[in-house]
Specification:
The chain is 36% helix and 24% strand. By secondary structure, it is α/β, with parallel strands linked by helices. The protein binds nicotinamide-adenine-dinucleotide (NAD). The site of nicotinamide-adenine-dinucleotide has 25 residues, from helix 1.
């Protein structure tokens, strides 16, 4: 451990991503676990964060007092719930630190709160923190631009584990936004999120979503561009949550010397 290591707080430390973040930070240089936070009433309060993550004790007890944890920290890594992330962004703004938000399923109102917090905090938010998916977004934008709506239909298919609570996934929406951007249209006005019953023929120019849930799948995404007599499929498979955790740590290190503002993984990865 060195004095220049970036001091990071993991919120939601007992969750699937929280535990992965603790293990990832522990195994990386240039960063250290400064504090670990869980929701009030969690059975994990007071337990050692490393032990919960399967590392053995690391001397960091899980707390339910985020403000105390943020005061002397440099960054917060947050894969929790929309309401928790909104609260954490206000605290990160107060402490004027980096807030990396991986939480998905956020409303437009939540997004407005993050943008307000970004006047003082350095916020990096993305529905997917992996290099592969962000590159897939760039490729999707190019493909959607090249293969126009008169002849090509775009469908986005995703599958995740059975515990996931929001749909379509943040990544599917990120890919939908990329496709909409490639076609210079609004995703909100052109997306078809569900189909059921007698739907009629597919309206040209729409971007369709299909959601599968089951088992322990970490994340499968395909963007299908379907034309007359041919089909192009761009896809990504996540087989290990550490890809998101490494992306989140990379984002925190990148944002360390940036001005307050609202950034995405495309900025971090130089793909914007
Ligand atoms: P999870 O349910 O396993 O973990 C969430 C944790 O947050 C839980 O331990 C919960 O107790 C904790 N939490 C909730 N409210 C809290 C609060 N107020 N204070 C402190 N802790 C609180 O879920 P998960 O699978 O780890 O996913 C979490 C989120 O991250 C989801 O929105 C998921 O879609 C998203 N996710 C994003 C990416 C990405 O790359 N952006 C990747 C994977 C998951």
């Amino acid at each position: 451990m060195s004095g220049t290591d970036m001091k990071l707080v993991v919120v939601g430390a007992a969750g699937r991503m929280g535990q992965t973040l603790i293990r990832t930070i522990h195994g990386m240089g240039g960063v250290r676990v400064f504090a670990a936070v869980e929701r009030s009433g969690s059975a994990y309060i007071g337990r050692d964060a490393g032990e919960i993550a399967g590392l053995g004790p690391i001397g960091i007890s899980i707390t339910d007092q985020p403000l105390e944890a943020f005061v002397d920290a440099e960054g917060v890594l947050d894969f929790t719930s929309p309401s928790a992330s909104v609260d954490f962004s206000a605290l990160a703004a107060q402490a004027r630190i980096v807030h990396v938000i991986g939480t998905t399923g956020c409303s437009d109102e939540d997004e407005a709160r993050f943008k307000a917090a970004a006047r003082h905090a350095r916020i990096v938010k993305s529905g997917n923190m992996s290099l592969g998916v962000n590159l897939l977004g760039v490729l999707t934008q190019q493909a959607a631009r090249a293969l126009g709506p008169a002849d090509w239909d775009i469908e986005i298919l995703e599958m995740h584990h059975k515990h996931k609570v929001d749909a379509p996934s943040g990544t599917a929406l990120l890919l939908g936004e990329a496709a909409a951007m490639g076609r210079a249209v609004s995703l909100t006005e052109n997306s078809v999120r569900v189909r059921d019953g007698h739907t009629g023929a597919r309206p040209a120019g729409t971007i369709g979503f299909a959601t599968l849930r089951g088992g322990s799948v970490i994340g499968e995404h395909s963007v299908i561009l379907a034309g007359e007599g041919e089909q192009v499929t761009l896809s990504h498979s996540a087989t290990d949550r550490s890809i998101f955790a490494r992306g989140a740590v990379t984002a925190a290190l990148w944002a360390r010397d940036k001005k307050p503002g609202f950034y995405s993984m495309l900025d971090v990865l130089g793909l914007s």
